[in-house]
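Hello Y.,

Per our agreement to keep a running log of every chain we model this quarter, I'm adding this entry. I've kept the format consistent with earlier entries: sequence first, then predicted structure.
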Amino acid sequence: MRQDKPRGRLAVLSIFVVLASAWCVDLGVTDTAVEARRAKLSDIALSIELLTKDGTISAKEPLLARIDLTNLSDDSILISTGNQGVPTTYMEIRNNARELVAATPRRDFSARHYLCFGRCIGPGEMWSRYWVVTGWYQFDRPGKHTVQVQFLEDREGLPVMAEDAASVLVVSFDAARLKARCDELFKPMHSVTTGYGSLPLGVRSKALYSVRHDIALPYLEWMAKEWDNIYACRAILRVGTQEAQKLYQTLAARNDKLGEKARHALDWPLERCMWDVAQ
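Predicted structure for the entry above:
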């Protein structure tokens, strides 16, 4: 029997795509959104800050970045932010020899459909986000690395509207330091009296998901049990050690919602994606 529902869903999707082609769905709605104009090259300044205490991390330690986009103009401006899979913010990571070791995806203009979102930024206002750099690249060897971020204009050629870079020195693996950092990220999540501090819950969670070491397993286990969390189960699988596999099998053997989520985690790809990085 012929069904019309899928066609209806496609029609709805097409409407959104058309809207996105005309401009973007505005997520930063303000009273001045109607008066905002499309951003020009000289309107935007970008800055990146790597959240370290002394400019270093130990190998396998999670690395976070704060990315600020500031409107330098006297007008309210509209910017395209892309989507979670392919944002208009682009990141490259280079080693001490300036060799490219990792880069996030950029929009493919040959793709037939592309749904993007937009944001309105008032004069002098700043739009800030946190990215989990180790969600995309694992700093597992000592050496200096540079993280460069560019904000791209969403049109053919992807012109760079603003960019900035920051460096981090990766030192030798230190188990005590890794545990201390995991504790620092985890403690506000565990205590209902302290809140989440300056970092949102999602950022703290993704930072812990990015750790590929047995030290992270107790934190991942807590998140899996506390929230019936499939993302934590996937993170356990990503650790890839015997201890991680043993923990995963224990969770998957449960006859409850968590057990179902753990078993379902096997159906999810373990490869990195922008969800692991962006807030």
